[in-house]
Amino acid sequence: MLVLLPPSETKAPGGDGPPLDLPALTAPELTPVRTELAGVLVALAGDVPASRAALGLSPRQDDEIARNATLLTAGTLPALQRYTGVLYDALDVSSLTRAQRARADRRLAVGSALFGLVGAADRIPAYRLSAGSALPGLPTLRSLWKPALGPVLAGTGGLVVDLRSGSYAALAPVPGAVTVTVLSERADGTRSVVSHFNKAHKGRLARLLATTTAEPDDVVRLRRLLRRAGLHVEHDGGDALVLVVPAD
User: Which GO BP terms, alphabetically (predicted)?
Assistant: First the structure.
């Protein structure tokens, strides 16, 4: 089972690992695209106004540009420690046992605008690049990633649970992947799409999938696993699941 997570805009600072080694990352066949994007980001960081425009940043976020400038020389952290925010708080990898962390490292991966796919234990620096960014002199990130990343994801084998947000899933869709929509249900039975707490629910779901000793290999067995864990999960056929949570 492979669980694809979205990245976060926010990243933990620092890192005590060696500088970025692109060929050492998961799926080394993506190295050419990674190398091209990293080189453009580093060069772009020398032009602060152009970086702001390309990355959608304000002057108060110039520290993000400074991070990009040192992309190839900065210290690194494992991806699950680098990404921060609501989803990763709910995932809470720091509280996992050694055995659980080993399973998480095998099963979790992060979709990335810069790296395409990042394994949970891959060491990466802090950076700023979003799926919707438009880098000068390059085609869209979707145009760059789909032909390279698409075959990698399609060839993973086994069950893929795609929890990426829409813009990251669009970089390279995964045929047959299970997707999850989170709906909140009010006391009167009406439902609405969860927005604010969507990431928290998906983070808890990712934690469950990362740590279970079960190995579901299709959507029906996955649904059964989630229901045994006490989750209200609906499946109307196909590859989509609906996670229903009480309205806050």
Answer: response to hydroperoxide
Would you give per-residue pLDDT tens digits along the chain (248 residues)?
999 999 999 999 999 999 999 999 999 999 999 999 999 999 999 999 999 999 999 999 999 999 999 999 999 999 999 999 999 999 999 999 999 999 999 999 999 999 999 999 999 999 999 999 999 999 999 999 999 999 999 998 899 999 999 999 999 999 999 999 999 999 898 999 987 789 999 999 999 999 999 999 999 999 999 999 999 999 998 999 999 999 87
The CB-side HSE value for 112 (13 A sphere, CA atoms) comes to: 29
Cα–Cα distances (Å) from 54 to 31, 47, 70, in that order, read 22, 11, 18
DSSP character for 218? S
Residue type, 39: G
Q: Which two tokens stand for residue 219?
A: 């959507």
Q: Are the beta carbons of 40 and 138 closer than 8 angstroms?
A: yes
DSSP SS3 for 105? helix
Q: Which domain holds residue 173?
A: 2-246
Neighbours of 142 (CB within 10 A): 16
Number of folded domains in the chain?
1
